[in-house]
């Protein structure tokens, strides 16, 4: 399976039986931002230790990773691996504020580990006892803590102040963590241990009302003290407790949709409530699982929980269950970058946003999410043609086919991609039939016609934001003139990039080459013109009279591209000659036109077919590559080079090798994953 950043992952089934109720982690961190995190947003609840290097590298694919706090002792190197693999990752320390792993302390970590340090300061009167004097235990091998103010003071501390102090000084102070995940967070506790709790150790069982009131106050004090000590920048999440929104950034909804807690109709409104009312940034997690069956390939179950998560802005986790949090399961849907949300969730069944059973839809930049929360099969007629993701797991759902309607069984969901219809930020000939490839030559989407009804057919066109206002404008060339239009097709201006004496065609590309955050229009001549490159402002005013990319007396024209080939923040101008010249690519300094590289031949230099070029980061390394297509007379051969003219990828044929019409190319990040796709057309 392909991960979000393009790495290949294996499904690794890890036996990591949960040491329920003990682990603590935190960090005095800089403010965590979730603005760079794409949808779907993913969390991994991973309590296995030790953690191998392979596992750590795989975990970096998730946006939030929850680790046992003992990882800072057993696996200190894992934090650097995670942050190197994913600089935006949020790492949370798993802790259970209401219990301690007495029976397993010796196998969790070394004697210098955080659990041992926490244990060394626990006063005997901070344990929670039954009325008969026995320890209360919520989980086998763990002793419960008395979180209330009825616990005795020891050196001026109770458990509900000692524990937050420990989190500050021993966990967050390490600098490893972005926050804390609190397990066993309950609003009330009279339902636990048959209500047999003696907070003040007077030998009498507390009443249910006393238990609930004092428990709630004790939990609130732990959260309040923790927040005061580690600040508002740290992320605090609990796995319950809707009454603690004033302190927590989010809640994990474990076993979602948990029928024992009201199912979808109860937990989904609670999820929305925490996402709307918790502390910012809001990072609630839908924690679905296999109910301890280990049946990772129940794709319908996974999809229903994932698409329900996407009805709001939270994070999604899917693993074994309460007995084992240690999986690296990666699903087709995790690979679908949806972009930014365009709408709130809408109940199509009732045409409202009221959270009740129905067929739900939410629109995103690159696709839509549909969730059927009813038990009945639902068919939905789409307003346009959408595209199913082409995956490797559930072939019937992720088939890659184009659809105009969708039928969803009860408690199921699907993510659909918007059909591509227009190339953005890269020149193309209007109304071209375009094929979409990754850098290895795999077709990743359905072919489409890139067409704007505001531009004449077959004219070189670029759809681009010329003035930085967030709205794209239209630039196109017709004959020897370049036209600038508003998005609605009204005229802005036009200009002749060369003298009126020149009557041939012109080529162009648009991009910021001088670092002023305003794009320039770089032009080249067509067939019959000299290889004269010129630079104009975004309004068509000449800024640089330009240079000749090849000998000035050659009359094959010149194609132009712009890109930052070495990731130095400055864009270069890359050129290729037209038909009749060798496929000679050259590189110039963008701001001055100074020759930086004498260049290289993208194909056999004896073949006088010229070369088409497009510039973009097609392999996700934050450096632009030079993508070439053979000119007329050559096969539809696409190759990829680095800034030194070395082959970066082996290349591929976009159509039959027998064709001899050459291949036109463009680049565009069609799915918002940070890597450009290669767009090819004849």
TrEMBL record:
| UniProt entry keywords in alphabetical sequence | Signal
What domain of life does the UniProt record list for this protein's source? Bacteria
Q: Which Pfam families match?
A: FG-GAP_3, GHL15
Question: Is-annotated flag, keyword Signal?
Answer: yes
Write the protein's name. Uncharacterized protein
Species in which this protein is naturally found:
Candidatus Kerfeldbacteria bacterium CG_4_10_14_0_8_um_filter_42_10
């Amino acid at each position: 399976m392909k991960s979000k950043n393009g790495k290949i992952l294996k499904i690794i089934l890890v036996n990591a039986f949960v040491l329920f109720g003990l682990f603590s982690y935190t960090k005095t961190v800089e403010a965590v931002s979730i603005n760079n995190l794409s949808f779907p947003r993913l969390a991994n609840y991973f309590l296995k230790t030790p953690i191998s290097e392979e596992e750590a590298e795989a975990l970096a694919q998730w946006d939030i990773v929850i680790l046992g706090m003992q990882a800072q002792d057993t696996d200190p190197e894992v934090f650097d691996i995670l942050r190197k693999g994913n600089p935006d990752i949020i790492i949370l320390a798993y802790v259970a504020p209401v219990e301690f792993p007495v029976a397993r302390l010796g196998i969790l970590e070394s004697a210098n580990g955080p659990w041992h340090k926490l244990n060394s300061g626990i006063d005997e009167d901070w344990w929670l006892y039954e009325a008969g004097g026995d320890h209360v235990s919520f989980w086998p091998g763990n002793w419960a803590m008395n979180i209330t103010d009825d616990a005795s003071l020891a050196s001026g501390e109770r458990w509900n102040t000692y524990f937050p102090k420990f989190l500050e000084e021993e966990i967050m102070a390490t600098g490893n963590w972005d926050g804390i995940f609190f397990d066993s967070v309950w609003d009330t506790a009279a339902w636990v241990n048959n209500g047999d709790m003696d907070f003040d150790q007077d030998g009498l069982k507390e009443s249910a009302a006393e238990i609930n009131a004092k428990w709630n106050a004790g939990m609130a004090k732990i959260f309040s003290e923790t927040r005061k000590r580690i600040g508002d920048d740290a992320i605090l999440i609990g796995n319950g407790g809707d009454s603690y929104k004033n302190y927590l950034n989010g809640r994990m909804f474990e076993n979602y949709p948990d029928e024992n807690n009201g199912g979808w109709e109860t937990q989904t409104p609670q999820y929305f409530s925490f996402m709307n009312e918790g502390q910012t940034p809001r990072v609630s997690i839908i924690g679905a699982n296999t109910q301890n069956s280990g049946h990772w390939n129940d794709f319908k179950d996974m999809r229903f929980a994932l698409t329900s998560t996407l009805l709001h802005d939270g994070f999604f986790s899917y693993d074994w269950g309460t007995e084992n949090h240690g999986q690296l399961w990666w699903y087709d849907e995790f690979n679908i970058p949806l972009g930014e949300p365009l709408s709130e969730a809408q109940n199509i069944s009732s045409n409202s946003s009221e959270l009740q059973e129905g067929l739900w839809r939410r629109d995103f930049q690159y696709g839509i999410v549909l969730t059927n929360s009813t038990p009945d099969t639902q068919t939905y007629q789409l307003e346009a043609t959408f595209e199913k993701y082409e995956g490797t797991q559930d072939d019937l759902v992720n088939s890659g086919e184009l659809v105009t309607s969708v039928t969803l069984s009860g408690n199921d969901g699907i993510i659909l991609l918007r059909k591509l219809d227009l190339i953005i930020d890269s020149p193309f000939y209007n109304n071209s039939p375009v094929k979409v490839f990754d850098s290895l030559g795999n077709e990743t989407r359905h072919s489409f016609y890139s067409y704007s009804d505001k531009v004449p057919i077959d004219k070189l066109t670029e759809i681009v934001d010329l003035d930085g206002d967030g709205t794209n404008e239209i630039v196109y060339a017709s004959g020897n003139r370049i036209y600038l239009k508003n998005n609605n097709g009204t005229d802005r201006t036009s200009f002749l990039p060369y003298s009126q004496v020149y009557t041939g065609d012109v080529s162009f590309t648009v991009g910021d080459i001088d670092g002023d955050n305003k794009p320039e229009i770089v032009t080249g001549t067509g067939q019959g013109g000299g290889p004269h490159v010129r630079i104009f402002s975004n309004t068509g005013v000449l800024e640089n009279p330009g240079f000749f990319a090849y000998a000035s007396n050659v009359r094959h024209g010149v194609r132009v591209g712009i890109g930052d080939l070495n990731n130095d923040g400055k864009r270069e101008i890359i050129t290729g000659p037209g038909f009749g010249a060798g496929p000679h690519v050259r590189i110039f300094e963008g701001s001055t036109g100074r020759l930086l590289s004498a260049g290289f031949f993208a194909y056999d230099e004896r073949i006088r077919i010229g070369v088409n070029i497009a510039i973009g980061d097609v392999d996700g390394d934050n450096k632009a590559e030079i993508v070439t297509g053979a000119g007329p007379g050559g096969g539809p051969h696409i190759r990829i080079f680095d800034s030194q003219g070395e082959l970066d990828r082996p290349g591929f044929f976009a159509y039959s090798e027998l064709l001899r019409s050459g291949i036109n190319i463009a680049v565009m990040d069609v799915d918002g994953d940070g890597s450009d796709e290669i767009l090819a057309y004849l």
